[in-house]
Amino acid sequence: MLSESITEKTATIMRSVSNFHAGAIVCLLFAVSAACDERYHWPLALPRELSSSFAEYRAGRFHAGIDLRTGGVVGKPVYAAADGYVSRVRCSPWGYGKAIYVQFDDGNSVVYAHLDDYFDELREYVRKNQHTRQSYTVDLYPGRGQFPVKRGEQIAVSGSTGVGPPHLHYELRDAANRPFNPRLSGIKWPDATRPIIRRLLMTPDGPAGTVNGGYTPVILDAVQQGDGNYITPPVSASGRVGVGVDVIDPGNDGIKMGVHILRLRVGSQEVFHVRHDYLSYDNIHNGTVAYHPFFLEEGRFLLLWRWPGNVSDPYAHAQGDGWYELPDSPIELVVEAVDFMGNSAEILIPVRPEMSPINPPDIVPADSQGDVVLKCCGEYIVVTADFPSTETRAPELLVESGETIRLVPFRCMTGRTWAAAYKPEQSGEHVLRVAHPRIISREDTVHVALRGWPDVSVADGNLQLNISSDSPYGALFARITRAANKSASPLRQIGDAWHIWPDAMPVDAPIELSMAIPEGVDVPARAGLYRDTGKSWRYVGGKRRGGVLTASIRDFGVYAVFEDILPPTIGDLFPPDQYTAQTRRPIISATIADVGSGIAAFEIRANGQWLLAEYAPDENRLAWERDHDLASGDLELVFRVMDNAGNATVVRRTVHIP
């Protein structure tokens, strides 16, 4: 392995200053001064620039490390942060791609991910295991003394394997294997820019409260003031309210990152705070309720209240649950956002007591039909009745649950709109009926599962859900209907598609989804469960138990059974047939793809010998790693690709090796 002292590294950095723009010079000078007093060695000899921060938003989870920019290219040297040894090494086309796990002598550890290559000895160790197992994908645990590393030694080169463009994922973990904020170990990076607060969300805590006269969350603009802080327009509210903030920490080239601390205050009194210092892989998926799951299209609203069931560390240390009981007099709420280098910004929210409900005008309504819309807002449902013209008569909402029937009042929102909010008190089937002379009879069956209650089974048509007691975050709603609109697919759909509403429903412990394989399937082994993403159908899988497909899911939406009889494609092969190579390690590559269930396995063989080939899903490229000489003479190359449904494609080529 190559080693490089701090002094040598500093000299290298300074020699490279002239190659960078002014912003990069600042980063380099910062790196020189920071390197002298940090606990861990910075992993790159590049300007200290981040593209992702610790614990920021990822779909359905928190981000477990920081992402470091590598100038948009692969192949930059990666250095050991401290003395220790390689405790684990992975290689996969997906996820972290090529990754090295180093156990430090001080008890902490680090993960370097999306690498392009390992250091020489480790590369040979990985390749030996890949050949032995005849698998590109390996997950290995070397012994303690097998691959020792020293602080500042080069252990890898950066890459783009797994997911994303070229960058280095750098993830520090403590002795309990919990990812932690690198700032806790003294690591620094240049950042003199304050967080930018873009919008604010305020929501009532169910039917007992209101915001701006309604039951649904309200999004408020953040107006920047002369001092760089922000203010929202005045808002009227009543009861208990919660606040979420769409806030970013700006980086270079328009990069948007997350913040370290978010704090809600009334005067000098703290109501709640979120602090991103530690995560746990046991509950990292709780990130799905750290940001309001039902408003992701409007913004990434980091919540300043604890969603029921969210036990993640960022929410574990504040007193209370974050909901604030408003007084009967005007107040000012303040949210402070602090980034990882201590820069901060505040937003002021002027709140006044809620006005009295709107009285509908005393006019004769038009004889036209209204429409009803259901919206899930978390632990409660808002039922809205919209009329094409002014409506003076309130609709009625009757909710039948077991032997109980409740009348839920509607509130006049505008002359044409009425709304009612319903928060269930028990699990089971809830039938919601809206009655009004100018609304076509409407009945919705919504299944409810409350956290801690007995398991719930929901069945409708060809679909069944088995919901465990720890699947709901507080309350879980599920309405199952036949799906009318869906994306196109080259595969053959078997039977109806079913819509599980609400699409954005957060799920803690996975739910078991079962669908019977409909009649008409030619090859039952090729049938699978698929989910409509809005653009295409994504393969979910499904274990076959008799004539039923079963899968664990955390996403609602539209599901259907498809039969995948389309084999993968193999194209752009090199070398061409009857090719005469100039070397015993020629380029051998192909483009592989699958439009159905997705690629599950791939291989290249030469006269029956397995070749180590890397698969890059983002590029659909399969390429031999050219890690040994091929035998001289005529060689039969066999490319074989299989999808998740069991379809396979085989292509053969003959080449001559000198």
Tell me the layout of helices and strands.
Elements: H1 6-15, H2 22-34, E1 50-52, E2 57-58, E3 61-62, E4 66-69, E5 77-79, E6 84-91, E7 98-104, E8 109-118, H3 120-133, E9 138-140, E10 148-149, E11 154-158, E12 167-173, E13 196-204, E14 210-211, E15 218-221, E16 223-224, E17 230-231, E18 235-238, E19 240-250, E20 256-257, E21 261-266, E22 269-275, E23 301-303, E24 324-325, E25 331-338, E26 344-353, E27 371-376, E28 381-386, E29 396-401, E30 404-408, E31 411-412, E32 417-422, E33 428-435, E34 442-450, E35 456-460, E36 463-467, E37 475-482, E38 492-501, E39 511-516, E40 527-532, E41 537-541, E42 543-545, E43 548-553, E44 557-563, E45 569-574, E46 579-580, E47 589-593, E48 599-606, E49 609-611, E50 613-616, E51 621-624, E52 633-643, E53 648-657
Explain what the structure shows.
The protein is mainly β and 658 residues long. The chain folds into five domains: 6-185, Glucose Permease (Domain IIA) (Distorted Sandwich); 196-353, no CATH class; 371-450, Sandwich (Immunoglobulin-like), CATH 2.60.40; 456-563, Sandwich (Chondroitinase Ac, Chain A, domain 3), CATH 2.60.220; 569-657, Immunoglobulin-like. Helices cover 6% and strands 44% of the residues. The protein is built from three helices and 53 strands. A hairpin with a 2-residue loop joins β21 (261-266) and β22.
Provide the descriptors you would attach to this structure in a database record.
single chain, 658 residues, mainly beta, Glucose Permease (Domain IIA), Immunoglobulin-like, 5 domains, nine-stranded antiparallel sheet, 3 helices, globular, disordered N terminus
